[in-house]
Structures are given as C-alpha cells and as structure tokens.
C-alpha cells in the first residue's frame, strides 16, 4: 500500500521502458500503476480474483493510446503468458535477456509451487522463456526469498536454494515489512530478481535433478548420504548410495547444506550413471507403495 515501496519493487526490475511486462497477481493495481508510469510497450496482467478485474479495466482504459494493456482473468498456474507477448521480442538463449519482464507480488500459498514450475519451464526454454532468458522480479515470504538466495553453509540453505541457483542468477534485493501490505501478513516479504543462466550448472533433465536434490535434502540435518539412500530400493540402498558418492568424490558424512552447487552436479551425474546402467532403479520412488525392481538378473524388493 506504500507508493514508495511499490516504486522500489518496479525499479528492482531495471529498465522496463518499451519492454513487455507481465504482472502476476496485480490485485487492485498498485504495482500496475507504477509499471505503467515507466511507459512499457505492453503490460499483461494475470489476475485470478474476479473482484479486481473492474479496477484493472479502469486502469487499462485510463492509459489507452499510451500503453497497451491486456487483462487475463485466470490462474497463472494454468496460463501460458507467452501467447500474449509479441513474437518480435524473441532473442537467442545466449543473447542478453529479451525486453520482457515478469513482475509479481505472489500469493504465499502458490509461490514455491509456481517457482518450481517456472524453473522447469526455464530448463526446457518454454513459455516466457521460449523468447529468451526472460527476467523475473518477484516477492516472496521473507524466509522463502532467503532460501532461494542462500549460499553454502547458510542456515536457510535447502532444496529451493540449489534448484533456483542451478538455473538462475538469484539476487535478494531488499525486505518489505508486513505492515506495508493490506491485509497485513504475519511475516515480512523479500524481493528477489532471477535471471536465467545461459547454461545450468547441472546439465541433466529437470525431473532427475529435482529428484536427487529433493531426496538429499529430505534429511537436512543428517549426513547427506542418508537422504541419497532413499533414491534406491531398500535391498541395494546402502551399496548404491556409497557407489554414487564414490563416483562423485563427495564425503558421505557431508551434510546437505555443506554441499556446493557444483558438487550437487557431480552427485546428479553419478546418479545418472548408475540408473543408465540399471534403468529399473530410475523408476524407484521412495514415497510410492512397495515396488519390485529388476537389476540385471535379480529382483530387488522394497
């Protein structure tokens, strides 16, 4: 609700004049007005709550002839905004980022889910990232924002840290006190910018990287090999996890938050090597009901 802070969020996105700006969850249009003052080429608003649409339509009418505004009444989790972005902004992935910005004051309830989904789209160069390395300026619950940017040994270091940093350059810009929002949340908010990397640190399929990192961090305070063991069926768990750590040249008693992004890359490569030789192991899901797996001539039961 504070214009000074709203402008600060928009300034964090950098130079947006003549850019295409997609705002996620504009609500009553506070950030939208600040975006429009920067005279972008086009503004795309994705709003799920129908109560805010009339207000956003008034804003769109007020700037007719100056800024082109598209209003999409829908859920960002189900909307491909790239359909609304002019195709002439497209650049090569290795070029500087295109003149496109994603800006959003995200609802806490979907922010992490949305971020993981966007990371997968970045890994496949889909959606807004089919046009190049589209930049994001987003708000998150402060703790989540800190996790995204957390370096090795940081108390907030977690799965989300490694996932975000594997595909993006993550910068924690500043805090916003909860008192600046209406209704007031119980926590403060962090503003984060993310720019996709030209090459990810771990050059493997998204689902595989996510699986390895998720399982290793599932036992964050224990030796990291304990989480890695859950990648494999019970009867070969210890053997395969030790083999994975040996291939990766990682100390098994290292804790997850002590592992660098490049070391996670070695662990993912080692896992990929093991499941390439034993394809049945890749199908194993620790969270699924008991399954049978065939490795060479033996049946492995969990």
From TrEMBL:
Its EC number is 2.1.1.-. GO terms for biological process: transcription initiation at mitochondrial promoter. InterPro entries: KsgA/Erm, rRNA_Ade_methylase_Trfase_N. S-adenosyl-L-methionine binds at residues 1, 25, 47, 75, 105. GO terms for cellular component: mitochondrial matrix. Keywords: Methyltransferase, Mitochondrion, RNA-binding, rRNA processing, S-adenosyl-L-methionine, Transcription, Transcription regulation, Transferase, Transit peptide. GO terms for molecular function: mitochondrial transcription factor activity; RNA binding; rRNA (adenine-N6,N6-)-dimethyltransferase activity. The keyword ATP-binding does not apply. Residues 5-198 form the Ribosomal RNA adenine methylase transferase N-terminal domain. SMART domains: rADc (SM00650). It is an enzyme of class 2 (transferase). It is found in: Mitochondrion. The keyword Transcription regulation applies. Its main location: mitochondrion. Belongs to the class I-like SAM-binding methyltransferase superfamily. rRNA adenine N(6)-methyltransferase family. This is rRNA adenine N(6)-methyltransferase. It comes from Parnassius apollo (Apollo butterfly). The lineage of its organism: Eukaryota, Metazoa, Ecdysozoa, Arthropoda, Hexapoda.
